Amino acid sequence: MRTLAITKRILKELLRDRRTLALMFLAPILIMWLMNVMFSANSKTDVEIATVNVSQTIRHNLAQVDGVTVTPTKTVRQAEDKLKSDHVDAVIEYQQKANRFNVTYANTDSSKTALTKQALKAAITGQTITTLSTGVQQLQSVIKATNPSFSAPQQSNKAPSISNHYQYGNADTGFFAKIVPILMGFFIFFFVFLISGMALLKERTSGTLDRLLATPVKRSEIVFGYMLSYGILSILQSTVIVMATIWLLKVEVVGNILNIIIISVLLAFVALAFGILMSTLANSEFQMMQFIPLVVVPQVFFSGIIPLDSMASWVQYIGKILPLTYTGDALTQIVMYGKGLTSLGGDILALLIFLVVLLWLNIVGLKRYRKVQ
Amino acid sequence: MQHLIELDHLAKSFGNRAILHDINLTVNRGEIVGLIGPSGSGKTTTIKTMLGMEKATSGTALVLGQQMPNRQILGRVGYMAQSDALYESLSARENLEFFGEMKGVTGKKLKQEIAHVSQVVDLTNYLNQRVGGYSGGMKRRLSLAIALLGHPELLILDEPTVGIDPALRRKIWKELKALRDRGQSVLITTHVMDETELTDRVALLLHGDVIAFASPQELEKQYGVPTIEDVFLTAEKEEEQNENPRHY
């Protein structure tokens, strides 16, 4: 009963705070839209290569590679000047005597360097194959001349065609699609953490918490009242974010939207309990803000945006003690692989453990303000 | 139950810093008891112990016959803190409704109570306004109205008249006396000395000890001075001369 009254009051306060509402619902959409624009604009790499003394075949093969432009140059000196003045991204010089390609990269953009290396390799392989097949043809004609009864197996000269199928998304699916599920979790965590922490801090500094605790309300009823109200809020928030990613950003969601919302609410509970706990360590709203670089930002790195599998084991252990890791994984499984809640038992269990521990700490922590229940 | 509040040899320390040494204080039914003392003398700690926000290190703190901390007793006590402690984005009515429900007053009874207490503090016409737009005095009155919700047998008011203009202060005191005459008891802290003349009994708190506890008139006679302010100054001086190096 008292829990519901507290829930009602918190929701009323939130509904009257238009700016905070806008922050919770519009800011995530705006940021995700911006990221979508940024990441899809940067997906194509173009390189210009200056070549010195490189054969026609190799040059031709290089230019075949998508995004590569070749500029033949007379001397190494000229080519290097171009490199210095940022007109080309790499210089390839062929040294006939040593049968060696000397490559100098601008290396100001690692993806351009990688593309150049790959293109050169492909070009050399292409040349070798051409030489080989000419050799084979010559060999065949020699054999035919000596032994007319020999017939070489007829093979079509056409290269096999490739037909691409995508289990998730389509050919345009880029990095953004991968981070969408993680971003969803991040926004919910960030806003619920900050706003609920601020709300309890305000109750403490304005004295309403003392007044509340001077009534027969149980400490747990206060914590559950907060949970219920922010739970409702996060249902709305995650629905809006999911809808925006599907309709506005055209990201494919394979799994059930309801599952996404359930995980989001669970995360919101953890964020809430975490925010309330942290707020007891802060004496002002500014001090609450200081937790953002300490508590919120590191979670982004460990949440799966950067794959942790290949990193040192201590890095992976840090990831395991942060709630966003589990939500990032669960939401990725739902959004990209269409997994159901039953196959996400590990993630859900981890979040529940976080929740129970944090809730318990909060209910006990309120003891600082009243010594009974 | 003879005393609504009975503090007996109450002591409270935080770590090794003793805030209250030996507090003995009683509040009878139908009386206003003042608790006065300079800042840092332990008034707020005494009140927090009565409300169960702090637990006594030793001694007993009985409120309405029960040892504190006790959650159920809090429903029968009205408390008003030094700060207004209101939800500014809610209207006055919503504040009253919320704290009423927290105290366990619900439904029709709550409506009647809100009508009654808002009339007592003269806010009936402003109930639907948001508290954020209230003046300081109105906030103070609303805060008092919340403390009055649910007909508490005992009111504990921590500096209720701080920052209040004289006319309003007089009005609040009139209301407190009316409550007393209806059989409710009031414990009030203040550092405005002339207010204590209006109480039935007054306790002087200094360095965590009650150094005198009697009616204002008796105290003035006992110390041979005309006002409570003089009583306080005299008592403080005597205290410093008699003992007590532990405080300094």
TrEMBL record, chain A:
Gene Ontology terms: cellular component: plasma membrane
GO molecular function, one term: ABC-type transporter activity
Topology versus the membrane: Multi-pass membrane protein
Keyword terms: Cell membrane, Membrane, Transmembrane, Transmembrane helix, Transport
Membrane-crossing segments per the record: 21-39, 179-201, 222-248, 260-279, 291-308, 348-366
Pfam family, one: ABC2_membrane_3
PROSITE patterns per UniProt: ABC_TM2
Subcellular location: Cell membrane
Domain annotation ABC transmembrane type-2: ranges: 130-369
Family: Belongs to the ABC-2 integral membrane protein family.
Name of the protein in its database record: ABC transporter, permease protein, DrrB family
UniProtKB/TrEMBL annotation, chain B:
Keyword ATP-binding: yes
Keyword ATP-binding: yes
Stretch forming the signal peptide: none
Domain ABC transporter: 5-232
Superkingdom of origin: Bacteria
Keywords tagged on the record: ATP-binding, Nucleotide-binding
Family matches, as InterPro entries: AAA+_ATPase, ABC_transporter-like_ATP-bd, ABC_transporter-like_CS, P-loop_NTPase
Pfam families, per database record: ABC_tran
Molecular-function GO terms, alphabetical: ATP binding; ATP hydrolysis activity
Identification of the protein by name: Nodulation ATP-binding protein I
Source organism of the structure: Limosilactobacillus oris DSM 4864
